[in-house]
Amino acid sequence: MTTGPASTLLDLRGLLLPELEGFVERLGEPRYRGRQVARWLYVRGAAAVDEMTDLPRAFRDRLAEGAKIGSLAVRRTQEAPDASATKFLVALEDGRTVECVRMRFADGRRSACISTQVGCAMGCAFCATGLGGFSRNLSPGEILGQFLLIRAHGRARLSNVVFMGMGEPLANYDATVRAVRILAAPYGMGIGMRHITVSTVGLAPQIRRLAGERLQMTLAVSLHAPADSLRDHLVPVNRRYPLAEVMAACREYIEATGRRLTFEYVLIDGVNDGADEARALGRLLAGARCHVNLIPLNPVDGIEYRRPPMARVRAFASAVRSAGLPVTVRIERGGEIQAACGQLRLAAGLGRPSRWTPAAQGAQGASPAGARSS
Ligand code: SAH
Ligand code: SF4
Hints:
Elements: E1 10-11, H1 17-26, H2 32-43, H3 57-66, E2 67-68, E3 73-79, E4 85-91, E5 97-104, E6 110-113, E7 117-119, H4 128-131, E8 134-137, H5 140-153, E9 160-163, H6 173-184, E10 196-200, H7 204-213, E11 218-222, H8 228-234, H9 243-257, E12 261-267, H10 275-285, E13 290-296, H11 310-321, E14 327-329, H12 335-340, E15 357-358
Helix pairs in contact: 1-2, 5-6, 7-9, 10-11
Bound molecules: S-adenosyl-L-homocysteine and iron/sulfur cluster.
């Protein structure tokens, strides 16, 4: 497993059903109690063992002696001006903070954008998270806790989950894959695997490993440049895993899973948004079963890059399209907020600390029991 926060008690949130079943059996309970515990953890979102009121008191006491449910506390919330998103600043048990977002789409979909690390070690040149460096990996329970907290916040069902918050999910591989499995499990959150998207900076060995898991989720690969010379600069990890290697891993992934891959490309004014780059991107991806997602840059305080004018964005999109690739641009209402999901400390409509609203009553539990939204 991953390096989570130090604690002597096992965090139940983050265990797969067979592990919960094994755990309760070791406490002398029948196996079916494992399923009951899973239901409390993932369906009802219990914040403490004591909330599991249909379990015998003696069993709850024994459970609480060796295990706990990790707690996350909402420190601040922030609403997008157009109500298309709510951002949460969440304190972990060790006092470190991450951010996650509840997003609302015009077609009724509700999406949770969650973080996998405190900070990020990849240092992409345009990313606010990268600016602050890396602190630690999140545990599976901390990743799932964000989902539960977002779910408890609203009434409408969450249909999608995107791993596009702080951190590089595939640099915290085990915790990410575990969280994906529990999110999609019938005993877990019941989110359709196809409605889960993991975004990666392009760690080739981990993309290959993920291909072997044969998960039917969506993988999004952050390209941002069609050639190594430029990508080396924007995405420093490209020096370790250059484009040819990333693309080979992507082809392997598409082949193994039968899934269409998404390529993300942040457009930066005068840096990677020219006609030459658009044509090169078209050539690089031609024939691949993929979708291209263009994200006009959200400016970051302290980083000089700018967002290109819309005419340039449109020209880039149509040049890529003419190579036969499906292209979408994240620009409409709420677009800034969606993009901000990857650089959550930004000022892009959501990020200025002065505009945060303190959470009512200070700290809140991750998710009150029975608060499943639907
Ligand atoms: N580490 C992963 C996932 C988190 S970032 C990754 O890099 O893919 C999610 C997305 O937001 C990535 O495509 C990332 O490139 C993008 N992003 C980061 N900073 C941005 C910014 N300032 N403006 C727009 N998109 C940004
Ligand atoms: Fe890390 Fe992704 Fe930001 Fe790059 S874009 S620094 S990989 S969070």
